[in-house]
Specification:
Layout lengths: L1 H7 L9 H5 L4 E3 L2 E8 L8 H10 L19 E4 L11 E5 L7 E5 L5 E3 L5 E13 L6 E10 L17 E12 L5 E13 L11 E5 L1 E9 L1 E12 L4 E11 L16 H5 L3 H9 L13
Antiparallel strand pairs: 1-2, 2-7, 3-7, 4-5, 5-14, 6-14, 7-13, 8-12, 8-14, 9-10, 9-13, 10-11
């Protein structure tokens, strides 16, 4: 009898990881099909010093650096300083059903989108893309929404040495760019969470400044399919730590714009032909990121 009861219980499908989907997996949620998951970052990245020096002092030089690989032949994550690359196998992909008017996916990765800077400014950058296609019985794609969850406590410095006037920071953020079937950029979302602590002489424990924008959304003309680029950055100056919890990405029927999409900030030429270095520069510079590699003397 016990054997019969055991076999009568249906097997529960395991939650796929992002690594499973990058290997060719597909997810269907409330009339939408999510497929063609691919890594986005270029296989070879500039070194710590070269990249951070370019961000701070020579941003125009980023256009000549190989930063992303839209062909899908790149890598999933790069890390600088004491950071570790994100592990796609540690990111669970959960369907956001429950609300049929706004289906999507949750990328749950609190164990992998994390930086503990230690004695050097550290940064982790992650990138992947996927396609969203409506099923014949579903309505057209008309919106995109991005929400960022914070995993837990954040540490912000102070450094054990002078900061040369720069604040001690810890941050996590994401950019989402949506393209139509012809490859033209429609618009984008941005979320971010920034903690900054300024070293003020005579003040032993200054309170950190906290700036947060954890949701973003926009509507667009009807589409049957879209391609979505995701860029996630987590970083901290020396002595800092930050962990990003999850990203919720929803699509489908009309929604009220949140008035913080990226359209007004994109140059006219960028809106037609996206320039890869500019995309990643936005991700790394999210929230006014001013990381410098500063080793303890």
């Amino acid at each position: 009898m016990c054997a019969c009861l055991y076999t009568a219980v249906p097997a529960t499908a395991a939650t796929p990881s992002l690594a499973d989907l990058l290997g060719g997996g597909t997810v269907q949620v409330d009339g939408l099909t999510f497929s063609n998951f691919k890594p986005l970052l270029a296989p070879v990245f500039p070194s710590d010093d070269v990249l951070l020096d370019a961000i701070l002092y020579h941003p125009s030089s980023l256009s000549s650096m190989p930063l992303i690989d839209p062909s899908g032949g790149g890598v999933f994550s790069h890390a600088f300083g004491n950071a570790m690359p994100a592990a796609a196998g540690s990111i669970a992909v959960l369907p956001l059903a429950g609300n049929p008017a706004d289906p999507g996916l949750r990328f749950d990765g609190p164990s992998t989108w994390s930086v503990n800077a230690g004695n050097i400014a550290s940064l982790q950058v992650t990138g992947f893309f996927y396609d969203v296609t409506r099923n014949p019985s579903s309505g057209p794609l008309l919106s995109a929404d991005l929400r960022q969850a914070v995993a837990g406590a954040v540490t912000v410095g102070p450094d054990s040495f002078p900061s040369d006037g720069l604040p001690d920071i810890a941050l996590g953020g994401a950019l989402q760019f949506v393209f139509d079937s012809s490859g033209q950029l429609i618009d984008g979302n941005a979320t971010g969470d920034l903690f900054a602590r300024f070293d003020i002489p005579g003040v032993l424990h200054p309170s950190p400044l906290h700036l947060s924008q954890l949701s973003s959304g926009f509507t667009f003309p009807a589409q049957d399919t879209v391609r979505v680029y995701n860029l996630i950055a987590v970083g901290a100056s020396s002595g800092g730590e930050y962990t990003l919890g999850a990203l919720d990405e929803r699509y489908d029927p009309p929604m009220a714009p949140h008035s913080n999409n990226l359209g007004p900030w994109l140059p006219a030429t960028f809106a037609v032909v996206p320039e890869p270095a500019s995309l990643l520069l936005c991700a790394i510079g999210l929230g006014g990121l001013r990381l410098r590699c500063r080793r303890q003397a």
